[in-house]
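JOB MANIFEST
job_type = single_chain_structure
chain_count = 1
residues = 98
[input]
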Amino acid sequence: MLTRDEASSAPVKQIAGTPRRVLGACKKSVAQAAMPYGSTQVIVRSYGKMKQLEDGGYLAPLFTRVTYKRRGGYEVRQAPIWCQIDASGVVSSLLDTA
């Protein structure tokens, strides 16, 4: 287990290309998904340029880091994901990049 300082000290990967408003909406969705599991911190960064979908929506590549409070310390989980935004600008899903 990590201490709180250790859990939040490593830099988070970032590649420019996703607008801040999209990052904010996607971060809110990631935080809501992680909350039932005891998340204490959610960091979301752009991980490249968005891709337009045929239906008018977008896929935003993100790098996410979520810190969870655990017995004896903190656990950090991080991964690249896709945040799917529909044509009206609403987050419709969070997708694994694999």
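[summary]
The chain is about 20% helix and 45% strand.
The first strand starts at residue 39 and ends at 46.
exit_status = 0
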